[in-house]
Each structure stands twice: as C-alpha cells, then as structure tokens.
Design a protein that fits this description.
The structure is a homotrimer of 138-residue chains.
Chain A (H helix, E strand, L loop, with lengths): L1 H21 L4 E7 L4 H18 L3 E7 L15 H9 L3 E5 H6 L11 E4 L2 H10 L3 E4 L1
Parallel strand pairs in A: 1-2, 1-5, 2-3, 3-4
Pfam families (chains A, B, C): DsrE
Protein name (chains A, B, C): DsrE family protein
Keywords (chains A, B, C): Signal
Chain lengths: 138, 138, 138
C-alpha cells in the first residue's frame, strides 16, 4: 500500500510538472530580432498585432534584440517607438543583449524606456526554448 | 487491485500520448517562408527535394507562408509553380496566412490551387512547435 | 507485487530517459548558417565568443552549414578561418551538408580542415531538435 502511495505521488509529480509547463499563459513565444532592416521591424509589428488580436492574453511574447537589431530599440534610430510603447503596455517584453550594447558602445540612455535587458541575447533564446517556449526568427 | 488498474491506465495514457506525439510520420517539420527573395524560394525547393529523397514518407512537412513570402504562392509572382504542384502531390502542405492576404489585399483567386490556409501564420508555427514539430526558418 | 515491480520499472525508465535528455552539457544548441553574407558570419563569431565566455563548457554548439552558407567553410572564400580553428579547438563543431557540396560541385578538399559532414543539413537540424537541442537561425 505504501508503495502504491509512492507511485501515485510520483505520477502526480509527472502530471503536475506537465501542467506547470503548459501553465498560464497558454502560449509562450520568444522572437529573435537581429537585423537593422526596417521592413523586418514593420513585419514584427504586424506579427505582434495579429498575435494579440487573435490570442489576447493567452499568449506571452518576449522579443530578444541583439546584434544590428539593437537599432530597433534606439531612440534616434527606431521607426517603431510608438508601437513598441503600445505593445509593452499590452504585456509584450522587449529585451536587449548587454553584450551587444558593450560591443557597439551603445549606452542604456540611448534606448527606449521600454527596453529590458539580458546578459546575452543568444543565451536568453536558448533558455526560453529550454523552458518550453516556441521560437520564431524574424 | 483497483488502484493498480488505475495506475496502469494512467501509465498507459502517458505512453500512448508519448507515442502519439512521435507517431507516424517519424519526423515533422514546419518551415517558415516570409520573404520575397526568389533565391530563398529556390533554396526551399532544394531542401524539400533533399528531405523527400533522404527520408521519403517518414517526414511530414508544412510550409507556412506569410508576410512578403505570400508572393511565393501567387500565380503571377511565383517562380516555383511547377515544383510546388509536385511537392503538394508528394504530401507537402503549403499554407498561407489569411491575415497577410487581408493586409496585402490579395484574394485567394490569385493564389496557386495548392494553397491551404491558416488564420495566422505566426500562430500556426507556434501551434506546430507546441505539438512537437521541428522548426526551420528559411 | 510483480505488477508493482513492473510499474516501478516503467516509472524508472521514464525518469532515466528524462535525465538522459537534459544530460551533460547543460545547454545544447544547433545553429543554422545558410547565407554567404559575411556580416552574418561575423555575427556568428560574436555569438560563439559570447556563448563560450558566458557559459564555458556547459554549452555544446553545432553549426550546420548548408546552401550558400558553404562558402563560410571554403578555404578560398571564408573570412573567418582563424576564428573557426579557434572555436573548433574549444569544442564547437562545424558540419557541412553533403547535398550542398554535390549540388554546388564543391569538393571536401576545398573546405577548411575543421569541417565535419552530414548527409543533409536540414535533416541534421531536425534530428538535433528532436533530441532536445535548442535551435537558432542566423
């Protein structure tokens, strides 16, 4: 009987763990932006608009910005400041790679106030995938 | 004994679910095409040819077309109509994002007859990854 | 009792399999390089440098080179020969798609000595994802 209880407990752990992984929100997406191509930036804005229109709060999105993509978050370079502010209010996170800032001599002052930060953009994308998030490259 | 039966049933569910996910076909791939670059389209044709040559029916492929990539499926824009028809006969699916059609004022009449449809291209790619499909960005 | 033993064995298999998948090294990443754009190559070198600086031997990386990306590994085309040699010594693998070599009439002699080989680049990326590796497209 005791063994049965242990087995039941183990099974419960497996199921609980599975539930925790799907969790709330239902869908989790990490997007990678590493280009200064403003048409790609515009495409990203469309993707975010459609995702929120279609799935609302059931989708969590984090945009990881690194390499030449850093210009997307720079006050005097971006073409999407207003939309970034709107999407941030809707719960979408924009995180910038600190390695990129150092390599390109960009200070945090030069970035939009919506910017969050991660030590390493590529590492962040890996960690999110390991945590079960879907991945889309722009 | 009853508890044992319940446990056995639960275990069976876990295994059945695992088998269903790996299932048949053995490999499942969602590819993302969001560019009007005809060299990338040509590369995709090569990838599909090699995948079918190497893995035959053990691989299931769905190509999700959105954004500027929609031209790949437009009768008067595509450079790959014949090959798309061939690959469709071999079981490869080409699905177009309906948000893209609306935003770009493209009607379904303008698309190749092989086109399938999804409400949201990015959402489809997420759903496939959640279902255990591999993902490749072109 | 026999049934209990069988159940315990099955459970153990599930857990062992889960542990084997996370295994050592902690992080596993397959990167896809299919472009002849030398700025993207330079970005890859930065990514690899930062990954090894940040995570050391806890990250395993394989770069899959196919399509126009093959030039990255060609002695008389690459701009990154020295760094490729360095990263190879640090345990990063660079594998070239043999389908690409055949299609582009490139012989293995023309490649850097650090090149490894896979039958099909796209297939390799699928297999790695199926084995639980994270994926990043350059």
């Amino acid at each position: 009987m005791k063994q049965l209880t242990i087995l039941a407990f183990l099974l419960l752990s497996v199921f609980t763990s599975a539930i925790a992984q799907t969790g709330e929100p239902k869908h989790k997406l990490v997007m990678q932006l590493n280009t200064s191509d403003t048409l790609i930036w515009k495409g990203l804005m469309n993707n975010l608009k459609n995702l929120k229109a279609g799935w609302g709060d059931s989708v969590k999105v984090e945009v990881v910005v690194h390499g030449p993509g850093v210009q997307f978050m720079m006050k005097d370079k971006t073409t999407q400041a207003d939309k970034i502010a709107q999407f941030k209010k809707m719960g979408i996170d924009f995180v910038v790679c600190e390695n990129t800032l150092r390599e390109r001599k960009v200070s945090k002052d030069q970035l939009l106030p919506e910017a969050g930060f991660v030590k390493m953009g590529v590492g962040e994308i890996i960690l999110k995938q390991e945590a079960g998030w879907s991945y889309i490259k722009l």
